[in-house]
Amino acid sequence: MTSATNADATASDPTDPYLWLEDVTGEQQLDWVRARNALTVDEYTRTDEFETLQSRIREVLDTDARIPYARRRAEYLYNYWRDAEHVRGLWRRTTMDQYLRDDPEWDVLVDLDALAEQEGENWVWSSAQVLRPDHTRALIGLSRGGADATVIREFDLVTRQFVSGPDSFELPEAKTDIGWIDTDSVYVGTDFGDGSLTDSGYPRIAKRWRRGTPVSEAEIVFEGEKTDVAVGASYDRTPGYERTFVERALDFYNAHRFELTDDGELVKLEVPDDAGAGVYRDHLLVRTRSPWLGYPAGALLATNYPAFLAGSREFTVLFTPDEHTSLEQYAWTRNHLLLVTLRDVQTEVRVLTPGPDGWEDRPLEGVPPATSTSIIDVDPLESDDFFLNSSGFTVPATLLSGTVDGPLTAIKQAPSFFDAENISVTQYFATSDDGTQVPYFVVGSNTDTPSPTLLYGYGGFENSLVPAYSGGIGRAWLERGYTYVIANIRGGGEYGPTWHTQALKENRHKVFEDFAAVAKDLVARGITTAEKLGIQGGSNGGLLMGVMLTRYPSLFGAIVCQVPLLDMKRYHLLLAGASWTAEYGDPDNPDEWAFLKEYSPYQNVDPDATYPPILITTSTRDDRVHPGHARKMVARLEEQGHQVRYYENIEGGHGGAADNAQAAFKSALTFTFLEDKLR
Q1: Distance of alpha carbon 447 from alpha carbon 460, whole angstroms
Q2: What was the pLDDT predicted at 650?
Q3: Per the confidence metrics, is the pTM higher than 0.90?
Q4: Were both Cys, which of 169, 410, 459, 536 would link to 154 (CB 3.0–4.6 Å)?
């Protein structure tokens, strides 16, 4: 967000004494940030113990023994890689024969460290799209300091050079949506000038841009409204099924979808606005988020796409949820559909195959037990090959390569970074205020007696928290005999869309009640005490932390609140906030502000309350959740005399760190603070 935009938003609420902190890059504001950073750094990082911890976490992030996850595109596998020598990273590729070796030879395409030095820019890698099927060009997104907004450049994979000039596809910094149609044209949505963005800061207009013409002269294929979240167009290159699709996101969960025919007609897909829908060849898949045509929320349905357009509503049910099981992920290979399901937050993988007699459904054999498995990559244009990743809290990641109807082979194994021999993993269920059973995982070696415990939560946007290995958490926390807990609270997707929709808007309190119920259950089971219980969350999870501070302070001994939303009166005016009103509600609607104001942390700080110590962190370059949330909350807590420490990374985007060094520092700071407060 520009300073002018911030000024406009600031002027709308003159009653807030800390609005001046919403000016992201003002010198007075950054001086305020630097002063608080210095206090936190002096208190928690000036010891040999901190340096050792930071170094050990950095080893995890930098090690060459990590799995180099890759995307297969024809004969090449593309990978983005950062390590101690290449702090900004390398974009590189290799062949499958090489990739299967312990030490493959990589062909480096872009050295981001060299590029950043050459151009005097703080480049952070964002994305790369390879042109198919000839693989001669790529569209590369580069971010300044880790922001969501990117600069788009075209890269020649033959000459190994960026393409520039009037014949190239280059765009200045913006939240751009771009994708190949063919060698000489792309679909693009970006900042075309006044009125071209939505209130959320995303593209409102989709254009077809042809090589050699200015983007300002590109052909408009669709326009949405300023109140929409975003508009985008994409091209399906499947041979024999080439189609253009347009999507108009009305809010975060509702969209209108169209096929754009060759003669320019927009054909609307008559599926529910809140459903997920996708077309592959002649298959239309619909994942329901609410009941439809007698099918429950969370079902996956399939039908013939041309017949559907002609009016047929005959569906095959590919997946039906139950009270324990939900659909987590699905993806096409060339001839098959892979499904990942969650049963009480533990994964199963199945293969579904369409045929003349219907769909065949069978389990995928060879998936490691007691791990969480996800689909890493498929390439339906090329083959039935796929990559899966499996890991658990104490089981390092394994990369599995397979072909449907062929063997599943472990081809890469991540190293162990901590001794997990005596660490157990147990799943429990807490009872929330309305009687709902809320699952959570407890990981540790000392869970029979109360010990320092870190409880992590998110609870929003239908994001599921599944068991996964973290060398950093293992080294910084579990190795010290402490306990780590993941709470699978409502608002997430662990039990399908209804687990999420139960906690929208006026029902947001269920997220907070679930998390508090887990905290109480941990104490009741003797795993920890309130004084030894720390909590952590970021973004939407940072909002959760703010509510725990102001509503349930007696349950916790320390809080880490990262890149948070905290001012729910103004969140919709800042950066991408307008896109989240479907999740939280609209503060400008008096009926919705009535429930938002009940929990909005910034408005509910109490000078007479006793709060646990809190560390609040954010990033200056976060252009998704405005750093003003964190700054203003700290200012208000300081004003009232509460214990608060603050750290703002001057770069790093919504992830809070632009490279491994920054990530290691931030992680070591977090765990040092928690250990200091919870021992």
Answers
A1: 28
A2: 82
A3: yes
A4: 169
